TrEMBL record:
Record InterPro entries: RNaseH-like_sf, RNaseH_domain, RNaseH_sf
Protein name from the UniProt record: RNase H type-1 domain-containing protein
One protein family per Pfam: RNase_H
Domain of life: Eukaryota
Stretches assigned to the RNase H type-1 domain: 21-155
SUPFAM superfamilies: Ribonuclease H-like (SSF53098)
MF annotations from Gene Ontology: nucleic acid binding; RNA-DNA hybrid ribonuclease activity
Length: 210
């Protein structure tokens, strides 16, 4: 893993209406979960004109947070391939948790490490990449466009390789334990009065039944 000195945190700036006028190239990224599918997409604007779109899918067991991080990483990779277009780039995301995570230069997360090493590379090339948080669904065209692309990415067949997070296995194991416990709870005839008051255990809250 690269030493923190070989990585660079993101340069986070506040988003304002005319911020895109200060850069030649702006990217809007978004990750989404639609019909149990995890998708992502980003759109590129050059001088306010849409020039490219990119869409991806990852395993359904992955999280939206992973999709958001991957989408930002893909946008940074795109900038590295097209750094000759400008010396100033802007990446906008509606995932504040992803942007905060990218500010931690000691994180072991593979996507964060890769993105930060790319940002360090840009510093040596005189290329500035700014990041900005945008609130979703408030009418910002770039964000709405990225959101639409992410949702449409459910049609993608090929998947970008991505490891399944530990949270998925924990959730699956918990569901299995609860299912087994409920089966035993229903089978045994003990605690008859308790069963009249309490429904079987689920992840959803049930109102008290008098």
């Amino acid at each position: 893993m690269p030493h923190p000195s070989e990585r660079s945190p993101i340069n986070l700036v506040s988003y304002y209406q005319s911020i895109e006028d200060s850069v030649s190239v702006a990217c809007f990224t978004d990750g989404s979960k639609i019909n149990s599918k995890i998708d992502l997409g980003f759109v590129v604007f050059q001088d306010h004109i849409e020039t490219e779109v990119h869409q991806f899918r990852i395993r359904d067991e992955c999280s939206v947070f992973q999709a958001e991080l991957l989408c930002i990483a893909q946008a940074v990779n795109w900038i590295r391939t097209n750094e000759n277009l400008s010396s100033n780039f802007l990446i906008c995301s509606d995932s504040l948790s992803s942007l905060y995570a990218l500010n931690c230069i000691t994180s072991p997360n593979r996507l964060i490490v890769k993105t930060q090493t790319n940002l360090k590379f840009f510093q040596g090339r005189g290329v500035q990449v700014f990041f900005s948080f945008v609130r979703g669904h408030i009418g910002i065209y770039g964000n709405e466009r990225a959101d639409w692309l992410a949702k449409e990415a459910t049609k993608q067949i090929d998947l970008v390789p991505m490891s399944v997070p530990k949270s998925f296995y924990k959730s699956t194991f918990k569901e299995h334990v609860i299912s087994q416990w409920n089966s035993l709870y229903q089978i045994f005839h003990n605690a008859k009065s308790t069963k009249e008051c309490f429904l079987p255990w689920t992840f959803e809250r049930h109102p008290f039944r008098p």
